[in-house]
Specification:
Elements (H helix, E strand, L loop, with lengths): L6 H12 L13 H14 L6 H17 L5 E10 L17 E2 L2 E4 L4 E9 L10 E10 L4 E6 L23 E5 L3 E8 L5 E9 L4 E4 H4 L13 E4 L3 E8 L4 E9 L5 E3 L3 E2 L13 E4 L4 E5 L6 H6 L9 E5 L4 E6 L9 H6 L11 E2 L2 E4 L5 E8 L13 E10 L4 E6 L11 E2 L2 E2 L7 E2 L2 E5 L2 E9 L9 E14 L8 H29 L3 E3 L5 E5 L12
Parallel strand pairs: 15-19
Antiparallel strand pairs: 1-30, 2-4, 3-4, 4-5, 5-6, 7-8, 8-9, 9-10, 11-12, 12-13, 13-14, 16-17, 17-18, 18-19, 20-22, 21-22, 22-23, 23-24, 25-26, 27-29, 28-29, 29-30, 31-32
Length: about 550
């Protein structure tokens, strides 16, 4: 049996694809899964007069048009939620909450716990002029939103170590990692005098005891002293890149094995003409699938210049490192192109609205689709990277990088500190999203992204940067949606495909009409031999 083609199929497909063209803001968005199932339902429920091959070919063409001009797996919902806490920014350090701080070392395990060590804070924000550097250790249960103080370190303003306590000295911007329910590893950082450290410590979670690996392991080799390095935490190792010491930036790469507690230098090579990343500090990192390590931005200026020009040296390049073959490749924001001026190549900062502005000390997460998320940071908000300023500016924008097509997309712009009318939660006003900040603590649990603290402009001090202790969670969800990318090539391809589909429908209709005038000959045994004949009229004669 053959069926007649239903024009509603093509009409429905046409409007489903054309509708997003009506607005550059993509107000109408048709779920592609529903569209595909609707088309198939129309074909199955309507008598068709086309051969099965033609039927499948036409259906395939319509679906290919929809597939090629749409993007899959787009974010359909994202929302910042403020998490209530038992203290607020002006209450300082308390024994049931870390309090406002910055520069802490943190690691989030796969059991929903955050481990936090040291950093700067204020004992009493009302009277203290300078922050205090700590070496306390905290664990945060994400699901219960509760903090547990595992040890208070030296916990006095003079920071004098008790003789019986063996813990890492107070520090900031050190590197941390670990193994769930087994150990927490800490390396390097800078002390209260600004000197770089290179000691490696292991905290055994069940025994609640610190071990200095250099004292228990003979011939222990450690990387050069540093702080603010790029860090990646893997299942069995901690990997670091770059960082800075008192006088220079570093560009070496090291791996610390959790199996035998040994450091090994990684000899990296360039994958293509983009070369190797320059030495830097304060970069944002992500761990992807297939042994891929991502690194964005940071500061590439020497410490002396950075102290004079606070916004100088921040970059906007995104690099990926392959653990399989130890190669680096720049995949976005690369400033090596020959068409750029020499000053822009030296700054390594590209002026573009399609990529995040040059920055460092941002928060980063990776979701279940292996998209990279970037929030906040500090740098220069000017699109001209050569306009260096004496002060640095914090960000509050949110970006997403698609690792499939290597493109950035801004998910939320920089916000103000305007409160949401009529909505309060506890003693703190509820805001649409976190205020601008940098050096915050970030971790994730599935597709829920968390940030805590940092340096920014709190609601009660909108014109003065302060240490923060608020906690936020970003919830995202995905759905396959039809979302048209309105470009000349897309419009041309769509028009060409539409004309082709109309011609195919016309030819199919003509074939159907011709077939209706030629009935088939059926054998008496019931089998159809697909033999066609012409009907005879009463005046037909076979006489010669």
């Amino acid at each position: 049996m053959m069926r007649a083609a239903n024009p509603a199929v093509f009409v429905g497909s046409f409007f489903a694809v054309v509708s997003p063209l009506c607005s550059t803001q993509h107000v109408f968005s048709f779920p592609r899964r529903l569209l595909r199932s609707w088309i198939r339902k129309q074909w199955e429920s309507t008598p068709s007069a086309m051969d099965n091959n033609n039927n499948g070919a036409l259906l395939h063409l319509v679906l290919v048009v929809i597939q090629l001009i749409t993007d899959a797996d787009l974010v359909t919902a994202q929302e910042w939620l403020w998490r209530d806490i038992p203290t607020y920014i002006d209450q300082g350090y308390v024994v049931y909450h870390p309090g406002p701080r910055s520069g802490s070392s943190a690691w989030g395990d796969n059991k929903g716990s955050l481990w936090l060590f040291g950093g700067h804070t204020f004992w009493d924000p009302q009277t203290d002029k300078d922050p205090v550097l700590l070496n306390d250790l905290w664990r945060h249960c994400t699901e219960e939103n509760s903090w547990v103080l595992l040890h208070s370190g030296w916990q006095d303003k003079k920071a004098t170590p008790p003789p019986f306590l063996s813990v890492p000295k107070p520090r900031y911007d050190s590197m941390a990692c670990g193994i769930s329910e087994i150990m927490f590893v800490l390396y390097g950082g800078a002390d209260d005098s600004g000197y770089a450290l290179n000691d490696t410590w292991v905290f055994y979670q069940k025994r609640k005891r610190w071990i200095n690996t250099s004292k228990v392991k003979k011939d222990f080799r450690s990387p050069p002293s540093r702080w603010a390095s790029a860090v990646w935490c893997l299942d069995d190792s901690l990997i670091i890149f770059g960082g800075r010491d008192q006088s220079s930036l570093l560009s070496d790469m090291w791996s610390f094995s959790f199996r035998d507690f040994t450091w090994t230098e990684i000899q990296a090579t360039p994958w293509n003409e983009t070369g190797l990343p320059r030495g830097r500090s304060d970069a944002t990192t992500w761990v992807g699938n297939d042994d891929k390590l991502y690194m964005f931005g940071g500061n590439i200026r020497n410490p002396f210049t950075h102290r004079k020009l606070k916004s100088a040296g921040y970059t906007s390049d995104l690099w990926v490192f392959s653990l399989e073959n130890s190669t680096w490749a720049c995949i976005s924001g690369c400033a090596h192109h020959h068409s750029l001026s020499s000053s822009r190549r030296r700054s390594n900062c590209l002026a573009s609205k399609d990529i995040p502005q040059c920055r460092g000390k941002s928060a980063g997460w990776i979701d279940s689709k292996e998209n990279l998320w970037l929030f906040g940071g500090v740098g220069n908000k000017d699109l001209n990277p050569l306009e260096m300023k004496l002060s640095k500016e914090p960000f509050s924008d949110l970006w997403l990088f698609n690792t499939q097509n290597f493109t950035w997309k801004m998910m939320a712009p920089n916000n103000s500190t305007t409160k949401r009318d009529g909505r309060y939660r506890g003693p703190v006003q509820q805001y649409e999203q976190p205020v601008a900040r940098y050096s915050s603590i970030q971790w994730s649990l599935k597709d829920n992204f968390f940030i805590f603290g940092g340096i920014g402009f709190p609601p009660n001090h909108p014109n003065k940067s302060s240490y923060l202790d608020d906690q936020w969670v970003l919830n995202i969800s995905y759905e396959i949606r039809s979302h048209l990318a309105l470009t000349p090539s897309v419009i041309f391809f769509f028009c060409l495909a539409s004309i082709t589909a109309i011609l195919l429908l016309f030819c199919a209709s003509v074939s159907v009409q011709r077939c209706r005038h030629f009935p088939r000959l059926t054998h008496p045994d019931g089998r159809d031999y697909k033999v066609k004949y012409s009907p005879l009229t009463e005046t037909t004669s076979f006489d010669s």
